[in-house]
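Long-time lurker. I teach an intro course on protein structure, and each term I like to show students one example going from raw sequence to a predicted 3D structure in token notation. This year I'd like something fresh instead of my usual example. Would anyone be willing to generate the tokens for the chain below so I can use it in lecture? Attribution to the forum is fine with me.
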Amino acid sequence: MDKQEKQKIFNKLKGQIESQKNLKREEFLSFIVRTLKNSVPHYDWVGLYFADGDRQLILDVYEGEPTIHTKIKFGEGICGQAAISKRTFLVPDVNKETNYLSCSIKVKSEIVVPILKDEIFIGELDIDSHALNAFDELDRAFMEEICRMVAEKLDC
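-- Reply from a regular --
Happy to contribute to a lecture. Here you go:
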């Protein structure tokens, strides 16, 4: 898919997600992960993790194959690094990462985007792809916008 086509899909999805902000928390979050997984061909696993009081990420909702990583300590793996640094991680090849927590041998690349509320880390959006180098700056900008929508919706 070329950049123009991708941007068109992302613009459409932003509108769809924005229009569902009146849903209850769990319905809204489920709508997001389901919509992303089913609408973007290279998004093979989509999940939302949220921080608990013990500096740990807890998997809330997801679409894709089951994972054993339902709890991840801050600092552990790419997700844990994003939690500590509060920055987006775009990983073109997970096999080149020494701190990667493997969920499936099919996963080749990953993007993890923090969700911040008043500059405080509250969670993150994690997306895996079965293709190498699947994510680019368009994905990053789109995911960061989705995370802002999530932060606005949540009362923390």
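Some talking points for your students: The chain has a mean pLDDT of 93. The CA atoms of residues 20 and 28 lie 7 Å apart.
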